[in-house]
């Protein structure tokens, strides 16, 4: 999903207890979105000399990266100031008026448990359901998710093969609407399509009942900008279930973390996406009515209920499981993992560490054995001539992101 964040890696020159301070600041509107370090800075009296080097500055040809270079405070003068600070025996940074000093982590910091079968520690478990500040959007989102789950409970009693295959077909269509359109095309501009085809895939994504393209893309871009920090809209550092689905029902916290949504100007200027934003819920309702007219209640149960919650949880597993279980092939400085079984279910999205290393890449399964259905579709579209400017990671960028670099 074009990279929108430069990352700076600092390693101790004395070779003891490697400390990594990863500063993420791809701020499309610097004045409205304060700088945030990747990890919480904790009070301690010890500091160490750091050396600095750029690890991941994104794809040079990326449209989003060009926007970032124009607007981000991390320009060459800032980097020069950062290097001078390192040479003076400390690592400090100044961005958007906030001074950040990288120090040794406080080993006495109280945590709230480790997620099962993983090395991910929950720093602050966020309570969602028993809080008192539910707003209308939270209630509506919870109502829709609950309704789809309840509808799917009728599946065993209304099974027939046409309804089953309908659900399978809509899983493919709406799933690719999320992975190919919302994610790789709209969020990261990994490739270009003719507008009619771009809009068709985006409309398929709307039928996944996960929100309109503008809001979905905005949240996802903020996820990459503040990945696995306290400002990430959905990170397992606040609990597995919060990263999986509970964050959807706490819009006030998401808005508080990210500030105003100011990172989707490329979509907001297009009337089609503004139309989908203002009429979003009507489109899945229309699909449900059409399915009922074609095949009665079985089509509604399987085509809307079963298929929707299947795509729901597969998408959510990318946010939760792929930041908890799996392996890291690249030095991304976050919790992203390559998870093979999520990749199988989510059309290649489970190769999540690959994706976080090369956000602009249209291909997530970088090895020949890493199945990536979304990439196969993109490649087919490229071969027939409709997908252009398909971005892939260069060998030089891979070397920069390798752990042994």
UniProtKB/TrEMBL annotation:
Alphabetized Pfam families for the sequence: FA_desaturase
Entry keyword annotation includes Iron: yes
InterPro entries: Acyl-CoA_DS, FA_desaturase_dom
Record keywords: Fatty acid biosynthesis, Fatty acid metabolism, Iron, Lipid biosynthesis, Lipid metabolism, Membrane, Oxidoreductase, Transmembrane, Transmembrane helix
Domain of life: Eukaryota
Chief place where the protein resides: membrane
Cofactor(s), by name: Fe(2+)
Organism: Gossypium barbadense
Transmembrane segments: 134-158, 164-182, 280-302
Pathway: Lipid metabolism
Gene Ontology cellular-component annotations: endoplasmic reticulum membrane
Name of the protein this chain belongs to: Fatty acid desaturase domain-containing protein
GO MF annotation list: oxidoreductase activity, acting on paired donors, with oxidation of a pair of donors resulting in the reduction of molecular oxygen to two molecules of water
Residues covered by the Fatty acid desaturase domain: 160-377
Keyword Cell cycle among record annotations: no
Family membership: Belongs to the fatty acid desaturase type 1 family.
An annotated GO BP: very long-chain fatty acid biosynthetic process
Membrane-topology annotation of the record: Multi-pass membrane protein
Subcellular location: Membrane
Domain notes: The histidine box domains are involved in binding the catalytic metal ions.
